[in-house]
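Technical appendix A lists one of the benchmark inputs used to test multi-chain prediction within the project. The record comprises two sequence entries:
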Amino acid sequence: MTGELSLNKVKKVLIANRGEIAVRVIRACRDLGIPVVAVYSDADRAALHVRYADEAVHIGAPAPRESYLRIDKIIDAARKTGADAIHPGYGFLAEKAEFAAACADAGITFIGPSPYAIEKMGDKQTARETVKKAGVPVVPGTEPGLRDEELIAEARQIGFPLMVKASAGGGGKGMRVVHRAEDLPESLATARREAESAFGDGTVYIEKFLVGGRHIEFQILADLHGSTIHLGERECSIQRRHQKLVEEAPSPFLDDDLRRRMGEMAVRAAQAVNYVNAGTIECMVDKDRNFYFLEMNTRLQVEHPVTELVTGVDLVKEQIRIARGRRMGPLESVMEPNGWAIECRINAEDPYNNFIPSVGRISTLITPTGPGVRVDSGMYSGFEITPYYDSMIAKLICWGDTRSEAMLRMRRALAEFTIMGLKHNIPFHLNLLNSFSFIAGQFDTKFVEERFSMNTYQEPPTDEEIEAAAIAATLVADRNRRLASQVVNANTRDTSNWKWLTRYERMRR
Amino acid sequence: MKYITTINDRKFEIEITNDGRLIVNGQPREIDFLPLGETLYSLIMQTNSHEVVVEQREGEVEVLIGGHLFSGRVMDERAQLMASRRGGGFTETGEITIRAPMPGLVVAIPVTEGQEVAAGQTVVILESMKMQNELKSPRAGIVQRVSVEPGQSVEQKKILITIT
């Protein structure tokens, strides 16, 4: 078997994705000395992943359906450039078994699990049944494909609150929490509609909603030589509308015993589908520390950097290594993470206006740096954020020796992060870091929606800051007015009138 | 030159004298204001150092300072005079329009023309950036006009619903 596997050379990698994750994969390839091919839609000609790649192939119109979701065009791009491997990133085609199979048919190494594993875990219901047989606990719920009347009848058995979920779901689309029986029909309709538009499949099922539940997931790595390990957990309970906003590793909720038991469960669940490559077992943990398998994500996660920072493992490099048929680097599960890492997802969403997405050109960008700070981003000053894709524009990840140190660094880094030209959620993250519940690690998946307000922890600006803002605005307006009315000659006085003002002030001292 | 500058609804009277002194609400201020880039400035007031981003868009000015984003308006003497002749301020027309905050696809319009709506009631569901966003009425009123229909793609700032 190993003889055959060593044929997977991986000499050139095509990245079937865009944004920060495409840049992340490019970096891993660069570190390994592998040339990379980017693909891009009309909307992404100027994107960072295109600028950073060795080669770039245009694959169609901005709508994902006409570009990043076109298996034929992506395989063609790989053929045209001689790429012998494809990394799917997350989202788009990453969890489409059909894509992994098409790669195999074209003789291209898919940097990810087998089509079989994607298929089994991709359908949430099949996944539940499969892991249940391996002795993994699952949340009580129905099978999919039931009609609304049947689901409503089943709901009475399961009890409220419950969750309506899309069978083909992911990323919070087609997912609704229902508290009262009378709201169920409408929620079913919304979930079906969202699932239909997001995945082309309106199949839904219902599941018991665990009150006070935390979303905790385990990072899995498995190679073709029979090793399956976990790299510890990530706490992902800070969510809004089922979209994760902040993740950390380790979880403030787990102790060594729970970590060991959940880790063993996660490894068993992955082994149940002969999983190979990087994957994530998502679990719900209730307040009494009972844990349940939720689903497996058969791909790299958005929040993978927090695991990288507390384990020292480069997950994308490991993915490529595993795809090449080699033994993976770490061989034993990580029971004791090194320090603490927190990730804040920087989204183009207005936290003061119901988190409505914002589009526009990044007019000013200052990226934080310094000890313990990592930024994974796909943007630059002058880059246009379009409405075609996800609103996540960057990830800010901070590491510290302890959770407190990581939080303080995060606060410092958020304050350094300057993004102008569109609305973003940095103020949300700053407020969250002021909240006592977050600082104390006391939160569940409903915390942001039900018990967090932008007003509670807002630090109001000082009088001096408001005055400074007024002065700065006035001085800039004054210069612009002078320039416009040609009171001064632009060439000779453009910046010098500032110096003049400054000099005057210095003279007076 | 005298300016009336409004930041987050707070008014400042700021004078830049011909000899380059800066007077804020009658008080002289010592400042050192240094442009660092197209929109980035360093402002030292007394000894306090502030990094400031100032961006002008559509007659408004946005200022980012200490992690706080302010929006405001700078009016010179002439603009002030014009505004005061018009009777200052703006008059309420009683009509409010719900516009698309970003380009997107109208998924549903849960209200009809002539319907009474409460403040905070969802009037349009707009899909953008893969999310369905509920646009809510800022106050109670009656739906006067529905200008779009489900399935329609709309540009940013397109009027969707008019409420009186």
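The radius of gyration of chain B is 22 Å. The first strand of chain B starts at residue 2 and ends at 7. Comparable benchmark entries are summarised in Table A2.
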